[in-house]
Amino acid sequence: MIKRIISCLLCVAMLLTCFAGCNVTDKVKDTMNEIQNPEPDPGIYEVGYTLPYLRTDSLNPYKSESETNRSLATLMYDSLFSVSNDFKVESVIANSYILTENTLTVTLKSGISFSDGSTLSPSDVVYSFILAKGSSYYSPYLRNIMDAQVNSVSSVIFTLRGSNPYETSNLIFPIIKSGSDKDTDSSDNYSADIPLGSGRYFIADAESGKILKVNKARLGGYHPKYNLIGLKDITEVSSIPNLFYLNEIDFYTESFSDGVYKRFSGESGTYETTNLAYLGINANTKVLRDSKVRRAIALLINRTDLASVSFAGFGVATSTPFSPSFYALKGCTLPPMKFDKNAAVGLLEEAGFDIVSEIGIRYSATDKGKLELRLLVNKDNSFKLAMARNIQQALAKADIRVVLKELSYSGYVSAVESGAYDLYIGEAKLSNSFDLSVFFDEGGSLSYGIDSACPTALRYHSFEESDITMQEFLDTFADDLPFIPLAYRKGLTVRSDRLKEKTNTIISDYFFNINEWTAE
Are strands 228-234 and 47-54 parallel, antiparallel or unpaired? Predict the structure, then answer.
């Protein structure tokens, strides 16, 4: 009996020792876990808000065709740099850079990991650059960059076609893990090739479908209000306004690139784009060879009203080829935008167009001809069609007759390429550095009707090489006016009433302050 009691006491003692040891060990583990992964704020593991994605389009940033899916890329992937709303560059995963006449060397921050924990290296940047150069969306930003190569264990060297002091602002393409876009095991063709990124979130599967989950491996840590973001799958973008009415999504961006205005419920804001609407001029047309005539046409167009009315309030007028928000314009004297009929008529008369016919068309008594101009416009874009009609009415005030040629997009492109026009309504998606070589290089993609040896083209190349100042280039452009800048299109952001913080969208990041967002 005594032996049995002693045995029981020994067992109890051993158990107590075990429990005490186990508790101490667990406590140490918990403490280490708290140090490495601090306990998040209450609610961080809940889905705070919901964003839309198009399930009929790829979620691979280099294959997606919709703005809806492409916007999510700024959450899942980091870039070398980001660009603020005044087009100043800020580092993301780039640590430093050296810009010379024909090269741009970028050194990466150390310790950057993809969401799977693997290290991001210069070879991943080169791999992503090749994909970006081949994509329709990112390639316009990279026109001036010919090649990228690994320079060292921590740097990449980009080879440039020509010098540009603002070139770093174009390095906003998503950095993906090399080869991670090649996974084709999934039966879902639209999500099988979602590559790995180092961004704030990554795509994960949930019972309700796909969600965005916070990336704990992100360099420097990332601590948003919510650990999860819901994703609402849709089959077509046209259904998005209805989803706001039904409170099924909380945030959306719209660039109106299709020329169709859409109405949304909820709070709205705007963001900058590099989409320049302009009036193209055919310098081969006899009556338009004189810069006085081109300047007169510009004076007859009230660009402020044109931008507001034609773009349904989502445009900002400009008198230069650069966005009015571009920080490099600070301190410059800009050409006037004000409508001035008297000054316009004075220039036309100086150019020899000093007679008005009985039917109201201004002409020259010499062999210069009459001011009857063909204006091409894509009739499929309501914004541009409204712009063309407003210009037609504006020029009529100085007895310039404008005949509109409203064509389908394919017919419009053919007419511009063949030179069968005097004027055309164009839109250019420029790079973040506002590279104008597309207009002024011989054979440039937007050089229609522009003489590559005109004063502006020659001065632009001097400006690129820093031989002249921004003001000197602007003065030449205003005198020569090889095309007439009209407005920069703005994008729209819409947020539901559930989001309490004001959303902040910049040109390279639709979700710039998403870490601050809270929702009811």
Answer: parallel
195: its two tokens = 């590559």
CA dist 337 to 118, 166, 301, 313, Å? Answer: 53, 26, 8, 18
Least confident of 40-49, 270-279, 474-483: 40-49
Kindly report the backbone phi and psi dihedral angles of residue 251, in degrees, each rounded to the nearest multiple of 5, phi listed first. -155, 145
| pLDDT at 239 (0 to 100) | 81
| pLDDT (average), residues 450-454 | 95
Tell me the helices (H) and strands (E) count for the chain, helix number first: 12, 21
The predicted structure's pLDDT at residue 108? 97
Give the list of residues 6+ apart from residue 246 with CB closer than 8 angstroms, or none. none
- In the DSSP assignment, the letter for residue 41 is P
Domains of the chain (ranges, CATH numbers):
56-170 (3.90.76.10), 275-489 (3.10.105.10)
Q: Report which of 306, 252, 255 is spatially closest to residue 489, judged by C-alpha positions.
A: 255
| Dihedral of alpha carbons 397, 398, 399, 401, sign | negative
**C-alpha of 28 from chain center:** 48
Q: Is the pLDDT of residue 27 over 60?
A: no
| pLDDT tens digits, 295-327 | 999 999 999 999 888 888 888 999 999 999 999
Per-position DSSP letters for 75-137, written without gaps between them: HH---SEEE-TT--EEESSEEEEEE-SSEEEEEEPTT-B-TTSPBP-HHHHHHHHHHHHTSTT
Residue 327, amino acid: Y
CB count, 10 Å around CB of 62? Answer: 22
Burial of 200 (0-12, 13-18, 19+ CB in 10 A): buried
- Residue 201 scores a pLDDT above 60: yes
pLDDT at 36: 37
Task: Map tokens 């959450």 to a residue.
Answer: 75
